[in-house]
Amino acid sequence: MRTIAWLGEVRFPVASARQGFEIVLGKMLQPEATSSIDIKVPYLRSASVQWSDVDTDDVKLMWASPREVSEFAVKSGDLLVCEGGDVGRAGLFTGPPGLIIQNSLHRVRPRGGNDVRFFRYALMALHGSSYLDVLCNKATIGHLTGEKLKALEVPLPSPEEQRRIADFLDEQTVLIDRVIALRQRQTELEVERFEELRESVVEGDKRALRPPLINLIEQTRPINYGVLMPGPRVEDGIPLVEAGDVMRGPICLTRLRLTEPRIEAEFKRSRLREGDLVMAIRGSVGGVQIVPGGAGVLNVTRDAARISPNPTIAVSAYVRHALSTRRAQDWLRIRITGSAVTGINIGDLRKAPVVMTDLKAQRERARELDEAEGYLADFKQFMLRGRSLLIERKQALIAAAVTGRIDVTTARRAKAQ
Question: Which residue among 23, 123, 125, 390 is the one 20 to 30 A from 149 at the CA level?
């Protein structure tokens, strides 16, 4: 029995990848012709390669000589491996002829009857290990160079055994991936169901008034954006709520960026307090969350706006739900401007119509929607844990199969019985 540093004990023979497979790094990007015989040719890059397949719909063009077109061409059945980016990610190419690979990809072809599908599963096992960080020096910018890939020690059973293992893993991983996809769809359906509930609760009363948002806020606390230039991150300072914090979900005080007190002090006008709303107004527009208690001094950046509902006429939790309905989000969306940096200006935000009713009804509706949203959050967390366990199961199965720690023939027979 042999031991591979990144894989552990292996019951199969071990060899370097170059002994079982021909590995070629792609062509350096050539934006212009360098000779009269150069031609433009479509090429694949690391973004084209996923574990599931190789995307040939979004290809780009580069110049290459006829010799290079032949040298770096890909054909159906080739395994393409990412040299950079998500290093080690590998996909089987089954697309049309006429494409080449850029030097962000390796092309792998079998020697001596070996199976590139088996090698792909070996790379999956490598990808799931921490050894890849060491191999590619991912502390800086990770690259799986041709020499590193060729020298990589891998299990190399007989070609027949490789095919049996690849067939088994093809079957089993498809089943696991199908369960993962079904759980993802379940989550999406629960999100849709909650959105429909929110729409019906907020928009259900057709006689409800729709005053502009500016009419619902405290006059002494107008809608404002915050700190223009937060400066470098510091370890001890004033927390700032950014648009990204709001788009991710409820505001988490321990994850906020900190800035120097002297910088924040220039923007006292936009300081937050418990119960205020913060809306993302730059980049991804529309996400809105409530400021929790216990924050102390807290502010927003220029990509977020503070909204302070007047408690005598508006319940913050209800206003958040009202601003989060599809109808309200559509209203905001059509008023987004800009090209490089998109956003909605404060003047338009002040005019946003909000479905309003009396305080008692607002509290009741907010309570109903908060409970439903809490259930949704718990459901998402439950499904996320399940997904993590399935991914772990898939990774463990792949590692056990490629090392020979399980006999795939026996495993298939036992499953059939």
Answer: 390
